[in-house]
Design brief:
The longest helix is centred in the middle third of the chain and has 35 residues, at 168-202. Helix content is 41%, strand content 16%. By secondary structure, it is of the alpha/beta class.
């Protein structure tokens, strides 16, 4: 029998994962009528499901190569009508329109499309969804009466509620309210990414003018604001945050540090996926290997306690599978290593899959407040003319950016033994991490993983001690043997290298002097 709240469902999805099974359950178990469009309708019909085509309702065929399908009063009135308003229902009846009680939509994968370096302008334009966001906004406005289903990860929960679980009809209303909030976050995110991409095509600023007020400054008793100085797309330009808390001064600072290191690794270690955890502007975990999931586990396990409450940056498009792995970090690895807990303050990536965002927002309580920053491609070469700024009381310092990366043409082996290929690979990673670690900096790496980072000490010897101590403290004693270390400045005496060598470090890179 049909559910008392849900009699007709409109299904129009780009990603058709699980849609046949879901639609079959709606029809067979709950007697719900299915309305659909284009490729979705064709797939459902091929699998023997009864489907009413949208054009049968509107009297208009799909037009303009599918650009116009659901943009019609007979569709949107059916979604937007307030069932508690007699006049709304009278008008529907007068026009022969039956209400639509459920909208199942996922949007064209715009972010994933433009993240491909081979994506053309024309391909990007065709991936700008129009009908999908309109359906989501309409259903979200009328969420009291219309249930929104966002992606395949929601299917099982929807069927459970329809079957009488989670409070029956009241559960539908509650779930519909939450889905409505998620829909507005999703369409806001989608529009922001389109605007970001279009801005990137013209290289003009999307937002200019006055400052943006921050949650607070470096400390809660200080006020703070963000002022845009450059026109390029980066962390400092139109950040996206959906349903998370506002950014603070420290959030921006740490997110910028994580982004810059992740971009550096992406440009220089071209075959690797990179994941970076940053705490107080310094890397506390880095993984750079071919597999994204492995890179993340290496970054987290580098220093699990420091990673908690830190900033995470990933060099790749965040999928649902990867997002679920991050959300389940503590259960997968944290308990085994004795971590105190896990959450992320800010998460930076080129882009987030829509279903991944839903997983982030729903799987753990901290996912509702994490700030998400979609920053576009990380492979672009930086502008050598761009300046970086640092505030001092009553003024500002400016300098050109440090764009020296893997200057391997200048590297010289000054010992009798030449580093092995695996050591060279780790030296590259350590060299780039040390560059982005506050001086005095000593970074120790092994097998694509940061295992100890000594940062910000008045003495380079103390940074060596901290880096080796952290490696031991975080369970990497076995990795110290044959590890490599990078120093961000020359060693004036042998005491620093002696500490590293005694710990098991077999190769060191430093600028000379």
């Amino acid at each position: 029998m049909a559910h008392p709240k849900i009699k007709r469902a409109l299904i129009s999805v780009y990603d058709k994962t699980g849609i046949v099974e879901f639609a079959r359950a709606l029809v067979d178990e709950f007697g719900i009528e299915i309305i659909s469009t284009g490729g979705t309708a064709a797939l459902l019909k091929e699998n023997g499901l009864p489907v009413t085509l949208v054009e049968e309702i509107t009297g208009f065929p799909e037009m303009l190569d599918g650009r116009v399908k659901t943009l019609h009063p007979k569709i949107h009135a059916a979604i937007l009508a307030d069932r508690d308003n007699p006049e709304h229902m009278r008008q529907l009846e007068q026009q022969g329109i039956k209400p639509i009680d459920m909208v199942v939509v996922n949007l064209y994968p715009f972010e994933k499309t433009v993240a491909d370096p081979n994506c053309t302008f024309e391909q990007a334009i065709e991936m700008i969804d129009i009908g999908g966001p309109c359906l989501l906004r309409a259903a979200a406005k009328n969420h009291k009466h219309v249930w929104i289903v966002l992606g395949s990860s929601a299917f099982s929960g929807v069927l459970k509620i329809l079957g009488g679980g989670c409070g029956g009809a009241d559960g539908v209303l509650k779930a519909g309210t939450l889905a409505g909030l998620a829909a507005y976050s999703q369409t806001a995110h989608y529009d922001t990414q389109v605007a970001r991409w279009m801005n990137e095509q013209t290289r003009t600023s999307v937002v200019r003018g006055g400052p943006t007020k921050l949650r607070y400054g470096e400390n809660p008793h200080q006020s703070g604001e963000y002022r845009s100085l450059n026109s390029g797309i980066a962390l400092h330009q139109v950040p996206f945050t959906a349903a998370g808390e506002d950014f603070s001064y420290n959030n921006y600072n740490d997110a910028n540090s994580a982004l810059e290191l992740c971009k550096e690794l992406t440009r220089n270690l071209k075959t690797s996926a990179a994941c970076v955890f940053v705490k107080h502007k310094n890397a506390c975990g880095v993984g750079a290997v071919a597999d994204a999931g492995k890179a993340y586990s290496l970054a987290y396990l580098g220093d699990p306690n420091a990673a908690m409450g830190g900033v995470l940056a990933c060099s790749f498009f965040v999928t649902e599978e990867f997002a679920r792995g991050v959300m389940e970090t503590f259960d997968r690895w944290g308990k085994a290593v004795g971590a105190g807990g896990f959450f992320v303050e800010v998460w930076v990536a080129p882009a987030f899959d829509e279903v991944a965002m839903q997983a982030i927002r729903t799987l753990k309580p901290w996912g509702q407040r994490v700030r998400l920053l979609s920053v576009g491609k990380m492979t672009a070469d930086p502008d050598p003319a761009e300046m970086e700024y640092r505030s001092i009381t009553g003024g500002m310092l400016a300098q050109t950016r440090d764009l020296v990366g893997l200057n391997e043409d200048q590297w010289k082996v000054v010992t009798k033994r030449t580093p092995s290929e695996s050591e060279i690979s780790d030296l590259r990673l350590a060299w780039l991490i040390a560059k982005h670690t506050k001086s005095n900096a000593i970074s120790i790496c092994k097998d694509g993983m940061l295992i100890g980072n000594g940062a910000g000490q008045m003495s380079r010897v103390m940074s060596c001690r901290i880096a080796t101590w952290l490696a031991n403290e975080n369970g990497h004693a076995d990795k110290l043997k044959g590890s490599v270390a990078a120093s961000d400045a020359f060693f004036p005496f042998a005491d620093g290298p002696d500490i590293l060598i005694d710990a098991g470090v077999s190769a060191i890179i430093q600028p000379g002097g």
